[in-house]
Write a structure and sequence with these properties.
The complex is a heterodimer of chains A (about 575) and B (about 100).
Chain A: H1 2-23, H2 28-51, E1 59-62, E2 69-72, H3 76-99, H4 106-125, H5 129-147, H6 154-185, H7 190-196, H8 202-219, H9 228-231, H10 237-246, H11 250-263, H12 269-290, H13 294-314, H14 318-346, H15 362-376, H16 382-397, H17 400-425, H18 440-455, H19 460-470, H20 481-490, H21 492-509, H22 515-529, H23 534-552, H24 560-581
Antiparallel strand pairs in A: 1-2
Helix pairs in contact in A: 1-2, 1-4, 2-3, 2-4, 3-4, 3-10, 3-14, 3-18, 4-5, 5-6, 6-8, 8-11, 10-14, 11-13, 11-14, 12-13, 12-17, 12-22, 13-14, 13-16, 13-17, 14-15, 14-16, 14-18, 15-17, 15-18, 17-21
Chain B: H1 5-26, H2 30-54, H3 58-90
Classes of the chains: A mainly alpha (about 575), B mainly alpha (about 100).
Chain lengths: ~575, ~100
């Protein structure tokens, strides 16, 4: 039964992708309804799968000796991430009905989105490292195709290629980990790796651990790979909500959480993970403060929040990080879709042009403010509880100075969130924009997410039980919701964080009086607006690569005789190596 | 016994293969490249028979040689057919003028 549901979670979106593409762009109505139907069916299958969670393989395909079994395990971590991918995926598809109306080439759009949803479900469900790598790269490919969806816009194409190259660079780390695991354990099975990690040679385990960290950092847009996510904002907004906020970027955090028990003992690994998370969170929060593009602010805040999750994993709080992942997926998808409604209505992404849109689109304003309060960590929304859990885990499992910087980041988060909300929905209408309220499909997608941002924290208890029951290596303790909430309320970290959030709010409220102070900070903001020099590094790498390629052009003559000579030399070298090796 | 059968065969193998390789590497004409390839393969063919004899598996060596004759004929046919098409399409068999890479 679980096997059938797993096959449905992956297969339904994939079948939908083929069908939508096959039906052609002449029938946009059919394309919309088919995409919604298949993604929603996938979502229902994933929700049903939560009830059938288990430690054993739910579905196993024999593919011969070299690759091991392609098996899928519906354990707690997998099923809830599958549910996020498919449910938020179907909401994004519903939102697309309004957002993408009248767009040409809908087939390509929906096919890639559905292909992505199925692959993401496969990525989190499989326990075969090799298959995980395959799904990992498929999601990167779909992300590339969707960022560059408007392929007549050079910025979109460049952003897509940048995302593809950077995430694939990190993907090498995962491939190395998979190959090493196979060569030392004779299997790609992740559970076997978790079990036998202490028996591996120390240096091999170190390479595995840091390879996975590199892969995770590239996928989750963490330091030093964070530059691709802001440029990925050229994608249609539902795609940003689905791939670049709620699902694909979480794959890195998932990878770290999945292998935390195996790598926790590696010297310096936990510290490295915490530092990566802390630097990403802090840097991205500063950049969000300096950005004026609505979607870029949200992208930076995604990097920042993912930094919190990575930090929590490093500090040993796997449950906290996953709970924050759940909250973040909900409220960030809400914020992105809300921003999509605003951009669709206003026709610009520049927040300096907006202002006072709240009275023209009250529904969007209400749900957006709910999401923003959750992002800022204001009680009692879901972001508050999960962020407090993260900070608590960080205080108990990591150094105090890192905790202090994370608290400072929480204040920055509140500050840039209120700045964003104010610039878009309140104050005077600077650009004289005439916005209209969101359409019915948009509202249908936004309402459940807003509800989730308000109440998903009530699931804390069942969520901890879900993870504790089926993850034998992670030593997570299941607690009822009440106890978890009480723990948060009693912890001193909560009040420090709340004070920081209040400080951030106050800093925005009295921004006029703090002018002197903010001018002193303008230097930092200028550096932040220039992405701390990482864009310059990127450009440098690109130009070095281009120059090297130009220099190597001479070696490609295109002449048959030279090619034959090269083949013969290579053959002789291989023979020599074999002779020397034997 | 410098003129023993294996020694002569080795000289034949190296000679044929060398001549063929030289042809493949030096010729500017596509047909001549195919001819060079054929000569090199004939050297390999003799090498199979020789190797079969030296390892006292004469039947295996000879049947491999027969297989190579068949495969090699097909290679020749396809390569010559391609050369004909190249001549028809580009009007030349000169290898340097066939490349489309910028230099």
């Amino acid at each position: 039964m679980a096997g059938i549901l797993i096959a449905l979670c992956i297969g339904l979106p994939w079948a939908g992708a083929l069908l939508v593409w096959w039906i052609g762009n002449d029938n946009p109505r059919w394309q919309h309804s088919l995409a919604v139907g298949f993604s929603a069916a996938g979502g229902l299958a994933a929700l049903a799968l939560i009830g059938l969670r288990s430690q054993g393989a739910g579905l196993s395909l024999k593919v011969g000796g070299a690759f091991g079994d392609f098996s899928f395990v519906p354990d707690g971590l997998s099923v809830y991430l599958t549910a996020i991918a498919t449910v938020i995926g179907s909401l994004a598809v519903i939102f697309s009905i309004d957002y993408m109306r009248g767009e040409e080439q809908l087939g390509r759009y929906y096919a890639l989105v559905l292909f992505f949803i199925g692959s993401m479900a496969g990525l989190v469900l499989t326990n075969n490292l090799f298959l995980m790598f395959l799904f990992w790269e498929i999601t990167a490919l779909c992300s590339y195709g969707l960022i560059s969806f408007h392929n007549d816009d050079p910025k979109a194409v460049a952003g897509g290629i940048k995302a593809l190259i950077i995430t694939q660079l990190g993907g090498i780390g995962l491939l190395v980990a998979a190959i090493l695991s196979y060569s030392y354990l004779g299997s790609f099975d992740t559970n076997l790796l978790l079990q036998k990690a202490p028996e591996l040679p120390a240096n091999v385990l170190t390479i595995l651990a840091f390879g996975c960290l590199a892969a995770a950092a590239a996928k989750s847009a963490q330091f030093p790979f964070q530059t691709w996510l802001p440029d990925a904002m050229e994608a249609p907004t539902p795609v940003s909500a689905l791939i670049h906020a709620a699902t694909m970027v979480n794959a890195g955090v998932y990878l770290l959480a999945r292998f935390y028990p195996a790598f926790a003992a590696v010297p310096n690994w936990r510290e490295a993970v915490m530092l990566v998370g802390m630097i990403s969170a802090l840097m991205a929060a500063l950049m969000a403060l300096a950005a004026n593009d609505l979607k870029r602010v949200l992208a930076y805040s995604t990097v920042s929040q993912l930094g919190y999750m990575v930090y929590a994993v490093g500090a040993g709080g796997v449950l906290a990080s996953q709970f924050h992942l759940l909250s973040h997926s909900i409220f960030k998808a809400l914020l992105f879709l809300g921003a999509g409604a605003v951009i669709h209505a206003a026709g610009t992404r520049d927040m300096r042009q907006m202002g006072g849109l709240g009275s023209q689109m009250p529904f969007v304003r209400t749900v957006f403010v709910a999401g923003a309060l959750a992002l800022a960590g204001v009680p009692v929304l879901n972001g508050f509880w999960s962020k407090e859990l993260v900070l608590e885990a960080g205080l108990s499992g990591g150094p105090v100075w890192v905790f202090g910087l994370m608290i400072f980041t929480a204040a920055l988060t509140a500050l840039y969130t209120f700045r964003m909300v104010w610039m878009v929905f309140f104050g005077e209408n600077r650009g004289g924009l005439h916005a209209h309220e969101a359409g019915a499909a948009m509202k249908t997608a936004l309402a459940p997410l807003a509800l989730g941002a308000l109440v998903s924290w009530l699931l804390a208890g069942p969520f901890s039980r879900l993870l504790a029951e089926t993850l034998p290596h992670h030593s997570i303790h299941a607690l009822p919701t009440g106890e978890i909430l009480l723990e948060v309320i009693k912890a001193p970290a909560t009040y420090i964080a709340l004070a920081a959030v209040a400080l951030g709010l106050a800093a925005w409220w009295w921004r006029e009086k703090l002018r002197l102070f903010s001018e002193a900070l303008s230097g930092i903001l200028w550096v932040a607006a220039h992405s701390f020099g990482f864009e310059a590094i990127n450009r440098g790498v690109v130009s070095v690569t281009n120059d090297a390629a130009e220099d190597l052009r001479g070696s490609q003559t295109g002449l048959l005789n030279w090619n034959v000579l090269a083949i013969i030399i290579a053959l002789v070298l291989v023979l020599l190596l074999l002779a020397l090796g034997a | 016994m410098i003129f023993s059968l294996p020694n002569i065969a080795i000289v034949v193998v190296l000679g044929l293969f060398g001549v063929g390789l030289y042809g493949v590497l030096i010729s500017r004409n596509l047909i001549k490249v195919v001819v060079g390839l054929q000569i090199a393969v004939k050297g390999a063919l003799v090498a199979f028979v020789l190797a079969g004899r030296l390892s006292s598996q004469v039947d295996v060596g000879q049947s491999l040689a027969l297989t190579v004759i068949v495969a090699d004929t097909i290679v020749a046919v396809v390569a010559l057919a391609l050369a004909v098409q190249v001549r028809r399409k580009f009007g030349t068999l000169d290898i340097p003028s066939l490349t489309s890479l910028r230099r």
